[in-house]
Amino acid sequence: MRDENLVGCRVCGAPLATAVRGRPPVYCSRSCQAKAYRRRAGARGRPAAAPPAAAEPAAHAEGRSRRRRQIAEAVWKIAAERGLEAASMREVAAGAGVSLRVVQYHFGSKHGLLVSALHLLHEENDRRARARMAALDDPEDLRAVLGAVLNEFLPLDEQRRGALRVFVAYYVRSLTDPALAEVFLHASQPVEQLVAGLIRQAGAAPGTDPGREADLLVSGVTGLGMDVLHGRRTLADVRTTLDYHLDRILPAH
Amino acid sequence: MRDENLVGCRVCGAPLATAVRGRPPVYCSRSCQAKAYRRRAGARGRPAAAPPAAAEPAAHAEGRSRRRRQIAEAVWKIAAERGLEAASMREVAAGAGVSLRVVQYHFGSKHGLLVSALHLLHEENDRRARARMAALDDPEDLRAVLGAVLNEFLPLDEQRRGALRVFVAYYVRSLTDPALAEVFLHASQPVEQLVAGLIRQAGAAPGTDPGREADLLVSGVTGLGMDVLHGRRTLADVRTTLDYHLDRILPAH
DNA sequence: GGTTGCTTGATACGACTGTATCAATGATGC
DNA sequence: GCATCATTGATACAGTCGTATCAAGCAACC
């Protein structure tokens, strides 16, 4: 297999400590390696146009977060399609189109990867939800806003469907992983309060408690979405149920 | 290690085919093995009192289902405490106090084990729920019956807490495992209909749709129970919310 | 006595997992 | 030319996983 590498340093001579662990050596010393590098750099000619300007300092940090995000997206994709237990380091690396070592380097351990991916997922979901809210026709129609907030938890399209699957998978993990539970508890508190506020502003029916209504509404829509996920209910049925309850809570349509 | 076993058959002589796979042989043939067995049986003396009566034919089947159940319980326990991904064949065997081979023999494969354990879990939960319903003070108090049905999905005690954890873990698995999804879909349909029927009988407030109320109630109480599981809500808060909605739906307390 | 059947014990295999180790690659500053 | 830095490539290791294989245990029938 490795015929020519068995002899010695590619630049000078032959020491080449034969370490059995890790990547097999090709040079006898760092300086010989530098020599070889400069030779290659010279043969490649000068870089296209802006060699001295170099990359601005922000580029490093940006490239880093982009890579982390790219890897996290692979975690989401695998978790949505085949479950979190299929998201091994190697599968994630392959899904992101990077090497195993890169995943190790950027997240330290598998646990770190899972926690970071959940963090990024929460941010991403918030971003998307806000974008959809901003795209509403009439932001003054509070009932429509309320419906949009609740619809965010239903598998209406492939994106939300995947998000819900990943969310549920992570939830189950969090039951036996305190670090993941932490992320859940510190992230998604204000949903019920938002819904309760909307109900209050939109004019709830007399005698209704917006807070209690919001509690059942949010947890209920999540449960209904889970039912849709594995085919126990149809999406149309869930939307009808939801409409019924919105009509009930906000009679002044 | 195996000093004396290297020579030959314990009864007659020496052939002893040296198979490298599986359990190392000790006898040269089945008949020699039978001889050794009969010798041991003779030395042990006659069994206590009822040797010829033998075991009735049903004992076999009963012993089998008992063993299956014992192993399934180990699956539930592990899944509740450390998640379904911790339920390896070896862990389950250890938890049930049997050998790995016994788990293999009675369930064929890990997938078969998981599916059977889920089946048995559904039966067990039904049994326990019915028992709790039968123990109600006044079976005519329909509101109390309704409350008991819904409370079955809340982690009120260690048993229900574990059941909910296992249930959720299995649900997530079922999203990527059709055989498990099958068990879910064919088992737990009538809950909402039961709740709707109770609401109807108990006298719902005018203008309310018992079916839609039941849908949100059941899915909502499941979601609230999940919130309790990882500490996002307190049990008292959930019960208050539930009481509020029961009062709303059934005003004629 | 020998044979057959169901059940269990005692290994073994190959695949995969998370992680660790060592070196090469570029780039920058001296 | 040399040292140093963050990043990536190329392995290797120890362990666990599900499963397969062969034989022993035990009871029943012939």
TrEMBL record, chains A, B:
Annotated DNA-binding residue span(s): 88-107
Signal peptide: none
Compositional bias annotation for Low complexity: 44-58
Domain HTH tetR-type: 65-125
Record keywords, A-Z: DNA-binding, Repressor, Transcription, Transcription regulation
SUPFAM superfamilies assigned: Homeodomain-like, Tetracyclin repressor-like, C-terminal domain
Disordered: annotated span: 43-66
Domain of life: Bacteria
One Pfam family matching this protein: TetR_N
InterPro entries in the record: BetI_C, Homeodomain-like_sf, HTH-type_TetR-like_transc_reg, HTH_TetR, Tet_transcr_reg_TetR-rel_C_sf
Identification of the protein by name: HTH tetR-type domain-containing protein
UniProt organism field: Streptomyces hiroshimensis
Biological classification of the source: Bacteria, Bacillati, Actinomycetota, Actinomycetes, Kitasatosporales
